[in-house]
Design goal:
Layout: H1 9-36, H2 42-64, H3 67-93, E1 104-108, E2 123-126, E3 130-138, E4 150-155, E5 159-168, E6 178-186, E7 198-202, E8 210-212, E9 218-219, E10 225-230, E11 236-240, E12 242-247, E13 250-254, E14 261-262
Antiparallel strand pairs: 1-2, 3-6, 4-5, 4-7, 5-6, 8-13, 9-10, 10-11, 10-14, 12-13
Length: 285
Amino acid sequence: KKRFRSGGAWEAQIAAAIADLEAVRSNYESTKKLVDRGVKKPLAKLQQMASLKAAEMRLIELENQSEDLALAASNARIKAVDARIAMLLEQLEFTNVVASQGGWLEKYHVEVGQTIKENAPVARILGLRSLTIDAPVPQTQISKIKIGDKVDLDVDGAGKRQGVVNKIATFANQATRTFDVEIAVDNSDGTLRAGMSAGVRVTIDQVPAFKISPAHLNVDEAGSLSVKTVKPDGTVQVMPVAIAQTVGNAAYVSGLADDTLILGMGQAFVSDGSKITYKIVEEAN
C-alpha cells in the first residue's frame, strides 16, 4: 500500500491515537487491580476493556489507512463544497427580481438596501393588456346573457370599445338584486386604466327593427304597443310592435315588415281603416 508521507496530518493523528491508547490501557490496568482486590465491581473492568479495544481498533485503522482512501474522502468533501457553492449561486440568481408578466409598475413595497424574506412582495404590477369590467345586470335580464356574448362599451375618456362576456355571477347582490357580469376588454394600446367608468350594452339577440320617435307609439287599454302604418292604397293600418331597444330619444321597434310605411306627422288624427294621402319623408339619421 502507498503510505502517507512523514510530517503530515496523518502522523499527527497516529500520535494522538497512540497517546489515547496508552491512557486507556493505563486506566484498564488500574481498574483491573481494583476489581481483583474487590474495590470495584467486575462490570467496571468490562467497561474499561471495551474502551481499550476501541482505542486499539482506532490505531489499527489509522495505521492501515492509505493515501488513496484519504484522497477519496477529500474528493467527497470537495464535491460537497462544490454542491454548496452551486446552491449559493442559484440563490444569488433569485436576487434578480423578474416579473411574471408585463405591465405597469404601480408601487414598490421595498426600499434600497432593505433585506426581504422569501416570497415577500417587492412591487405591484398592473397587467393592463387585458382588463375586466364588472357590470351589474338586473335579474330580469340575466337569463338572456351567456358566456361569449359581444359587448359594446363606451368608456369615459377613451371612446368606444368592444368586449366579450367572460364570467356571469351565480348569486345576486342582495342589496341591488343584480348579477355581476365580467367583461374582458383588450387593452393592447394601453389607453385604458384601472378604475375607469364605462357604459355597457350587451348584444343578446339580433332582430330587424325600425327606428322611430317614442311619440309615434300608441298604447291601448291592455298596455300593448302599436304604430299606425299605411298601405300602398292609402289605407291606415294599426300594427302591433315590441320595443327591441331604446337609445337616447329613439326607440327601435320590431314586428314590422321591411317595406312598411310608418305614419309620422298627423298620425294622431287618423284611425285604423282611414283613407289618406301621404308623402314619404326620410329622416336625416
